[in-house]
């Protein structure tokens, strides 16, 4: 990592998000120059952690994190026993878990490609919608095909969350304090991830199956859809604001 990582694009004569350097602007196509000029007029936000935590956007993204990640861990870590309880063989359950993992990778690529076109809010809402639908599909699994469809839906949604959520933090609050802001956000994320499998296992033992846990995770993800749509970018800071 020390050999290959570069701290920021500017250290290599580049600008973030595909903006061409000023020296190359004359050689860029007309459309690219127009896009670069448009982006140059918009200053990159620069929030400290304290400033970010005083904005509604920070807490809305934090709430999104809290309602999405229990399901991310709670469903993925318990999906194999759930599939076996639904009458599928251990080998089939393993194959479905593999489809989930592959789909998560594909979801990251898909959301990475469309993230800038649709915007982070729409992508976060779409990813949350997929993670709402998937647990409901899992409740109704009776055949391997049902399991593969549910796993693919869930994997693509989780891949989208893991790709777009860091992008939202960077877009909303800038790069200057990204590590400090993400550190606070990851505290919420890791806590939510740790709670998910415990909640899923506890409710499974309490009720005798995974129906209630899956309904809980679907409900939380549904809240995430609404929160994502509400989580707009914060207002730019006034100069000199502490």
Task: Describe the secondary-structure layout.
Blueprint lengths: L29 H11 L8 H4 L3 H30 L4 H29 L1 H20 L4 H30 L4 H30 L3 H20 L12
- By DSSP, the count of extended strands is 0
Shape: elongated
Helix content: over 70%
Rg for CA atoms: 21 Å
Structural class category:
mainly alpha
Number of helices: 8
Instruction: Please give the largest β-sheet.
Output: none
Order of helices and strands: HHHHHHHH
- Which ranges are low-confidence, i.e. pLDDT below 50, for 5 or more consecutive residues? 35-41
Distance between the termini: 34 Å
Account of the protein in words:
With 242 residues, the protein is mainly α. 72% of the residues lie in helices and 0% in strands. It is built from eight helices and no strands. It has helices at residues 30-40, 49-52, 56-85, 90-118, 120-139, 144-173, 178-207, 211-230. The radius of gyration is 21 Å and the shape is elongated.
